[in-house]
Every structure is written in C-alpha cells, then in structure tokens.
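Reminder: ligand-aware prediction takes two inputs, not one.
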Amino acid sequence: MPQKVTPWKVEGDINYEKLVKEFGLGIVGKDLLKRIKKHTKELHPMLRRNVFFAHRDLKWILDEYDKGNKFFLYTGVGPSGPIHLGHLQVWTFVKWLQDKFNVELWFQFTDDEKFLFKDKSFEEIEKWTYENMLDIIALGFDAKKTHFLIDTKHADIMYKEAIKVAKKINFSMVKSSFGLTDQANIGQIFYTSMQAVPAFLPSVLKGKNIPCLIPHAVDQDPHFRLTRDIMPKIGRYKPASIQCSFLPPLSGSKGKMGNTNSNIAITLRDTPKEVENKIKKYAFSGGQQTLDEHRKKGGNPDIDVSFQYLKMLFEPDDKTLNTIEENYRSGALTTGELKNYTIEKINKFLAIHQKNLKKAEKQIPKFIEKN
Ligand code: TRP
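Here is what comes back for the chain with tryptophan:
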C-alpha cells in the first residue's frame, strides 16, 4: 500500500524521510537537543530516542525563550472515542514540556471536527468530549496553567477569529492540502480555520503576540502548514511545532493507532485482562515461528509492537531498554517474555491512571477556559 498521510487518513508503511521532504520539515538534531537540555536538564526519552523527530521553527521558539519571551503550548483531541496509547504518546510529552518550561497549555476539543467527519450524532460526540476531558485531567496537567477550549462551547470567542482565517483560504487550497473533493460537506471545508484558532487566541486575549509551540503527530502538519501561511497575513506569529512519528497499531508498523477498530488500540479505560488479551492476541511480533528458530535466529525489535510500546512509552530507562533489545535480537528473550513484560508495564500505568480518573470529574470546571 502506498503511503498516505493526511489528518483524516494514515495508511501504508510510513517512510518518514520522504515525509520530511514532502512536508518540508526541519529535523530535531543534536544542536536543538542540546539547546532544549540547557533548560530541561535531562532529555525526555522520546527526544533521546528520536520519536519527536521533526519540527518547524523550534530554534525560534528557543531563541525567544532565551530572551525571556515565553511560548505557550497548544495541542488537541478530536473527541470521537476513548483515549488510547497514541494520544498518550503526544500528551506525556506535552506534560513534560509544560512542567519543564513552566508554560501555559491550550487544549482544544474539536467536537465540530468529529461531528463533521464521522458518522456519529452530536450527542455521542458530546459524551466523548466529556469522557476525554476526564482522561486528560487524570494525566496530571496543571489546572492553573491549562485551558480547555471546546469548539462549540467556546464559539463566542473562537468563531470571530476563525472567520479571519477562513477569509484567507479558498476551496482549492483546502482540496490540495487535505485531499478533500467536491463531495466534501461544507463544514469540512471550513474546519481547518477552527483548528488554526488556538495557535493565536491567547495572543488575542492577552492583546499581544505570544509565540506558540504545537506538539503533534506528523499527520496534523497539513493544518498547521496552512495556519502558518495565513498568520502573518492577519498580523500574528507563525506557530512552531515539534512532531512525532506514529505509535504503531497492535497490528504492526502500517498506519497509526486509532479508534476505528478496537483490535488495533489499547485504551486508557481497558481492564488488566483486556490489555493482556490484546497484547497476547494482536500485538504484532518480531519473533520467529517456533521457539527453536527464535533461539537460533533471534527476533526483530524494529517491527515488534510490544518493543515499540516500551521504547516509545513504557520503558524510560535506556539501560533496561538496551538489554531487552539485545536479548531479543539474540533470541535469549522470547516473544512471550517480552509481551508479559510489556503487559505488566502498561497495566501498572493504567492502574494509576484509572485511580486518578475517579478524582477528575470535580476538577473539570478548573480546566475549562472562562473567557
Ligand atoms: N484534529 C486533531 C484530531 O483529530 C485534534 C487537534 C486539534 C489537534 N488541535 C490540535 C491535535 C493541535 C494536535 C495539535 O485528533
């Protein structure tokens, strides 16, 4: 399958080098990592391991920060199903950035987007907006520095800004950026202007331009490429970004973890038994067919989904990860053992998360933007 990457479809084996060229992205190299480390003291595992590998204007964000001009963070969720490990990948990194740089975070809930793009009622989307808020709060974002924006609820402050963006975009730009056709509904055609708004709304509310950094998976880049083209035309800074590769679905390296099929995703609401079953039954293995063969030839961690989850999310310790990798390659570690270790790690995390969830509802009012 040829690779296809748009905000609404990720298909095929992803060739990241090709994406970097096609999209015109910068690479997060040694110099930038050094500059980040100067402020954060240590580097997040997803930076050390090249998971957040691409960027736009990150150097500028750090230059401004060095001058005392702080940025704010912007990320978001399309609320159409449970939160899964793919979301977690971006948001654990967002939380780390918020804590280390001590900055504000604007969190967009694109209920309009999911209503317009999915075959779901608005009532169902509203239910997911609420449920997703609970999970995001349970991840431990700082209520004093985090602002939830819900597109339909905050329409009073957002729509006025969205139309300023919309006026600078024509239908043919949307068609070529997103692959939308003449058959797209007219809400879909408008939508990208709503996703642009949080990149400059804090500047509107503060009455002065503030740099914006958007951590996101690389499929969202087309939105922000358009946003970046338009911002100078309405007197705003271009938002910067730092972008990660996709967390693989359980089924293997093609595409990304998503909500369309429960066999390919682990959600933050799964029970320990469900996690165990999913990993054992569905997690694509880089091991050999028989134990004998595995001991002889060894496994391939690069295509092994359990190993990738450890690398991206659940094994922050480099030494332990290296040992696992070596032992798996040599055949000393079996697929069964690797899976059991991964299950244990995921379930440990989920036990804490699910405990935090119980306290999340009461905190919702503290997170919703009051402007
Ligand atoms: N469109 C994203 C989704 O479908 C949600 C989103 C909105 C987002 N604003 C964002 C994601 C900013 C990353 C960064 O999930």
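Residues 335-357 form the longest helix (23 residues). DSSP finds 18 helices and nine strands in the chain. We will return to this case in the review session.
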